[in-house]
Amino acid sequence: MKKPPTNNGTAPPSVWADNQTQLARALNVSRQTIHRWRKLPGFPPPRANGRWSISATQKWVAENAAVADVGADDPQQATLRDENVRLQNEKLAFQLSILRKEYLPKSSVCRVMARFISAAKTRTFSSTSRIIMLARMAPDPAQAEPIVREELAEIWREMAKSEWNKPENATAQPQGGTP
Hints:
mainly alpha, two-stranded antiparallel ribbon, 8 helices
């Protein structure tokens, strides 16, 4: 009986790859992926002459797609992984800054802003008649604007020195917390 002819690696070049880099190029993956796949059970080994069967490897990838993590070389997947890592690092940095008490509780900020707005409103409205009088004393309407601006600036400077920005409870220590 006649034996069927053996190929011995003499098939057309598209069937065999001379090394892992050519095999990776033929399968449209990275060389690192081929290296990772070689460690998995059942991955087709190279022939004795060092050549790799592209068709056998394609068949193995098709049968082991879940294990082989076929989409691992997808640039979009890599971008998503990088973005995920960046966001995780950002979250950790934020959590550390909270532990270091670098953030104030939102309720404290709202309370201080409400006190500031109330004090600014009270001071400005209590000085309205004085501001109007000074503006009317200006010889020219164009000169009234700088007078009004200066008077308002003076009111705000006085506010900066006043009681509105003192802690509600003088013995209370400033505290950090979550936003």
